[in-house]
Amino acid sequence: MNSPTFQDLELDNYQCPYFTPMLPNDVPDVVFHVYEQMMFRNNGVCFYLHVKDATKSQTLYSLYCLKPVQEPIKQCTLSRATEYHNVCSRVDVGGSNAAMSGGPLTITTVGTTRVDMPDRRKNWAPHRFTYGNRRFVRKGTSKRLKKMETLYEVRSESPMHGSKTGKMEDQTFERPIAWIWYKSGLEKFAIVGMTGGLDQLFQECILSSALSKRIVELHPHVTSTN
Q1: pTM for the whole thing?
Q2: What is the DSSP string of the chain?
């Protein structure tokens, strides 16, 4: 594997090596195809997102959530196909979620909890989280279409001067960590690509946070004003 040695790595202000330069250059990217299934129940609608491999033949993960009648989605869970009844990642949805991901997502994987927090309560605002003491940001490519997001490692970030809404300025590595194409078909939900060399827990964190954010966006809870 073509990876740099430790002494060649770029370090942050705390002498911790950034993650992106440690990734190998000769490992193929990983691609997941995500399909949506709905099941109606007396207490609401159950949504299942089945995550398949690049051949679209093998299901690797399933993400589940319940949209209760007249209530918002409160939690999504991701399970591996071989451990279907055991949750490997749980996402608790914060805020009223009347608009797309207006609140934070609290992600718990193998006993570790992190918060996926939007810069602002806007449906196109970048989402940021910390993983392995490194900062990452997931940004949309279009405010209007909202069909693609890309995850990058953050080199530096700070509040934008004069912003009253919490907007952030940042510098990221050019090489993306992951990219998500959200589909508009009746069954095809998304295509998720990840750079080669990511560990399984990081992959599961990315899948659960991105897919949970999108399912909340597509099935919001609208509070009546009457």
Answers
A1: 0.86
A2: -----GGGS-B-TTS-B-SGGGS-SSS--EEEEEEEEEEEETTEEEEEEEEE-TTS-SEEEEEEEEEETTS---EEEEEEGGGTTSEEEEEEEPS--SSTT-S-EEEEETTEEEEEEESSSSTT--EEEEETTEEEEEEES-TTT--EEEEEEEEEEEEPTT-SS--EEEEE-SS-SEEEEE--SSSEEEEEEE-TT--HHHHHHHHHHHHHHHHHHHSPPPPP--
